[in-house]
Design goal:
It is a single chain. The protein is of the alpha+beta class and 141 residues long. The protein folds into 2 domains: 1-55, 2,3-Dihydroxybiphenyl 1,2-Dioxygenase, domain 1 (Roll), CATH 3.10.180; 58-141, Signal recognition particle alu RNA binding heterodimer, srp9/1, CATH 3.30.720.110. The protein is built from 3 helices and 10 strands. The protein has helices at residues 14-24, 79-88, 128-139, and strands at residues 6-11, 28-33, 36-40, 47-52, 60-62, 68-70, 73-75, 97-99, 102-108, 114-120. The protein has a 4-stranded mixed sheet, with helices on one face. A 4-stranded mixed sheet has the order 7-10-9-8, with helices on one face. Strand 3 and strand 4 (47-52) form a beta hairpin.
């Protein structure tokens, strides 16, 4: 009944950001409108909207303890390969680390926004197969 349609990312230059996402995430352009470009990643249904802004906008928030978090992450099937690719391009913001059935690292986009890449082990409750099982059970009730 409900699903995430789009995530909007504030950018200072939509063309530069489009090039960055198509180069590093293999995104494809869906369409354009005044002040924005819609893109999609090779897998998944959530779309990204690159929205032209006139000033820098935050794409992170702080939790109650003061730790910074991103509003979304991008799932990566081969996180080791992705890390090596982003490292070779000089875009790594954090080391690759593992925690609770997940691995992740952050990169920075052309505007300096933190983009988190994450990979979940099959045993993780957040792995898409576990989530799909949960959704299927919920739809059968």
């Amino acid at each position: 009944m409900f699903r995430i349609g789009s995530i909007f990312i504030p950018v200072s230059d939509v063309e530069q950001s489009l090039n960055w996402y198509t180069t590093y995430f293999y995104a494809q352009e869906i369409g354009r409108w005044e002040g924005g470009i819609g893109i999609c990643l090779p897998d998944g249904s959530t779309q990204l909207g690159l929205i032209q802004t006139t000033s820098t906008q935050p794409t992170t928030f702080k939790d109650a303890s003061g730790q910074a978090h991103v509003y979304f992450n991008i799932i990566c099937e081969d996180i080791q390969l992705a890390y090596q690719s982003f490292e070779q391009a000089g875009l790594i913001a954090t080391p690759l680390h593992d925690f609770g059935g997940m691995s992740c690292f952050d990169v920075r986009d052309p505007d300096g926004h933190t983009i988190s890449l994450i990979s979940e082990e099959l045993t993780s409750p957040f792995h898409r197969d576990r989530v799909k099982d949960l959704q299927t059970k919920g739809n059968n009730q």
